């Protein structure tokens, strides 16, 4: 039986709320499709460095996990995000700002 998936807009709102509970600032910088848009999370460590995470699906096992799409200077990560948006107009982009690198994507309910 296929696993039910949350609508993207609902997941984003839940993620932003979870981050706010830990006093981690986060912003929607690109609003994607509310129902089925892919989600990209940019972690800005406020020191000129950043990472971009995307959720990957393993077709063999059906498992989902967050993988690093880009890692490096914020300008390089932004360029990678811009390329992704150029071919996926339904893409959500969430920017998380945390000097210690917290993003909570490995937490229960967010990791898969």
From TrEMBL:
Superkingdom of origin organism: Bacteria
A Pfam match: DUF1491
Protein name: GTP-binding protein
